[in-house]
Design brief:
The protein is α+β, with helices and mostly antiparallel strands. About 45% of the residues lie in helices and about 20% in strands. The chain has helices spanning about 1-20, 30-45, 60-70, 90-105, 130-140; strands spanning about 75-85, 110-115, 115-125, 145-155.
Length: about 160
């Protein structure tokens, strides 16, 4: 019986040792050698790396938000203006513009050029009714004035900073 127990213990120990042996690398194994070469090759390539180039992609709407926060963006919406004059003579348009600025300094005056004419417009009105009321104010002096649909500038927002 002692013999059987001793034989069983020796067999158990040898079985345990044989299962442990597969986890230790064999120095003659080609996989181990190749992995060491790969490690060395990777380290060499990292040491000889050239300067790289970084490209940043961003949404263009980010710039619009930044411009808006700084107040550099003119906000527009569809509204109405009163067109005072449509002419090909730039000097006539500029002299009339100066006259309008003196008389109606509470309104913005705009000169637009669409080939071949210059148009002189005044005001930033949200509704057609507001533009018509202003047109009647200036119609004695400028009977050819008409109300036109245009992109108007919204007033700048005042922020406390």
């Amino acid at each position: 019986m002692k013999f059987h127990i001793t034989l069983f213990l020796i067999f158990s120990v040898l079985t345990g040792m044989s299962q442990e042996q597969w986890t230790q690398p064999n120095p003659n194994d080609s996989i181990v050698t190749d992995s060491i070469l790969v490690k060395l090759d990777t380290i060499r390539s990292l040491q000889m790396a050239s300067p790289g180039k970084v490209t940043i992609y961003k949404d263009p709407r980010i710039d619009q938000v930044n411009q808006l926060e700084r107040g550099n963006v003119r906000l527009t919406k569809t509204g109405y203006r009163v067109q005072i004059l449509l002419s090909q003579n730039k000097e006539e348009v500029n002299s009339l513009k100066a006259k309008l600025i003196k008389k109606h300094d509470e309104h913005n005056v705009y000169v637009n050029w669409q080939q071949p004419n210059f148009s002189l417009k005044i005001g930033d009105f949200y509704t057609r009714q507001q533009a018509v009321e202003f047109k009647y104010e200036v119609s004695k002096e400028f009977p050819a004035a008409i109300v036109v649909k245009d992109n108007i500038e919204l007033p700048k927002l005042i922020t406390n900073q």
